[in-house]
């Protein structure tokens, strides 16, 4: 057995006493501890990569007070320029259910009024050529003996056949002059009838018959 000095022996004894004390404390703690089994979670596995350091952002400028902020200059709105635009599908169909622009409905044909017919050609009635020298009615005998003269204004209606159909008195100096004229016109007077576009029609005329005594 090697020789140890008293100092070495005292140090070894102290070490043994410390080891024994630690074991005793461990045994006492084990006896005093509860018999509960505790699950210690494993620490998560974290992959560590080399990450470049992030530069610190520049600090924001201190807020300015309302007095320091200059007011913007007033904005003058220019006059709008309106340009005509062609209608779009949205203008024609606001609902938007059209896939294309519908063609306009067909317009009715433009009808023009027919040209007015030319005015009819009218030719007045006139005495027939055979009536020359036979127009004057006979002088009423009583008025002739009395030396009374005068005239008659009558309207005669002439039929399509050229004969007098009616004699109306417009004015007469004596009724005997009108009666003589009416009888003579109905019996003797003949006309070439009036025509409309070449066809004979009924017409009327005004005639003045004078009764004069020649010496």
Would you kindly provide a written description of the structure presented here, covering whatever features stand out?
There is one protein chain. The chain is an alpha+beta fold and 215 residues long. It has a domain at 127-211: TolA/TonB C-terminal domain (2-Layer Sandwich). The chain contains 4 helices and 8 strands. The strands form 3 sheets. Strands 1-6-7 form a 3-stranded antiparallel β-sheet, with no helix packed on it. Strand 3 and strand 4 form a beta hairpin. It is elongated.
Key attributes of the depicted protein:
alpha+beta; three-stranded antiparallel sheet
Mean pLDDT: 74
Distance between the termini: 222 Å
**Which word captures the global form?**
elongated
Strand content: 15-25%
Short synopsis of the structure:
The protein is of the alpha+beta class.
Topology:
Layout lengths: L5 H27 L56 H4 L29 E2 L2 E2 L13 H6 L3 E9 L5 E9 L2 H13 L3 E2 L1 E3 L2 E3 L1 E9 L4
Antiparallel strand pairs: 1-6, 2-5, 3-4, 3-8, 6-7
């Amino acid at each position: 057995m090697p020789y140890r000095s008293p100092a070495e022996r005292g140090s070894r004894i102290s070490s043994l006493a410390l080891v024994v004390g630690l074991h005793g404390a461990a045994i006492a703690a084990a006896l005093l501890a509860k018999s509960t089994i505790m699950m210690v979670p494993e620490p998560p596995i974290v992959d560590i990569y080399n990450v470049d350091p992030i530069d610190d952002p520049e600090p924001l400028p201190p807020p300015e007070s309302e007095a320091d902020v200059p007011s913007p200059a007033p904005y003058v709105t220019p006059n709008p320029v309106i340009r005509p635009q062609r209608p779009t599908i949205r203008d024609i169909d606001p609902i938007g259910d059209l896939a294309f622009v519908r063609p306009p409905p067909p317009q009715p044909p433009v009808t023009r009024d027919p040209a007015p017919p030319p005015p009819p050609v009218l030719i007045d009635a006139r005495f027939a050529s055979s009536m020359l020298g036979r127009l004057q009615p006979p002088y009423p005998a009583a008025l002739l003996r009395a030396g009374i003269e005068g005239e008659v204004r009558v309207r005669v209606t002439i039929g399509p056949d050229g004969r007098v159909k009616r004699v109306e008195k417009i004015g007469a100096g004596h009724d005997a002059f009108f009666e003589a004229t009416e009888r003579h016109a109905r019996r003797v007077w003949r006309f070439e009838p009036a025509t409309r576009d070449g066809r004979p029609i009924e017409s009327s005329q005004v005639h003045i018959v004078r009764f004069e005594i020649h010496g």
